[in-house]
Amino acid sequence: MSIAVRSLVIGVVLSAFLVVMIPASTLDSAPRFTRSQAYGDWLLNCFEPASKSNKQQKESCVLRQQLTHQSGKRLILITIVQEQKKQVSVRLILPLGFDIPKGVKLQVDGGSSYPLQILSCHNVGCQAEAKMSSKMRRSFVRGKMMHVVMTSSGDNKTLKFPLSLRGISNGINSIK
Description:
The chain is α+β, with helices and mostly antiparallel strands and 176 residues long. The protein has helices spanning 3-21, 134-142, 168-174, and strands at 32-39, 42-48, 60-68, 74-82, 88-94, 104-108, 113-122, 125-131, 145-151, 158-164.
């Protein structure tokens, strides 16, 4: 498969995941892309519902960062979204092959860690989520690096996937 075709396929798959990760309450029908902006190492993608039947529905934004293997394969996709009632959630798509009972956590600068709830696993990866507490937000804003920490299921090794926190403060502020 050529690089251009592979890039197109990856783009389509990621777009599908972004649509899935937008709060369901904002979707009347297919969302319409409205804007995109970089915040450090994070990318903000915003959408508005295709139907304007409910005047209270407005633009929904997803702040995201993706970690890819040198081969180009996605390892981790992390998104931050605002749910109803201003609750902010952190959602991830994780690679397969980790020990689910041992869990997954986000660790900031080797200190504070936040457990993730595994929601489901499919052939493209596992979905996990955590509601963003004020403590988690402060850690993200003050931190430099976050790691997604899990244990591999085959050899029981601890895996740490690095994600930059550069730009996350302005990015989180922009999703409100």
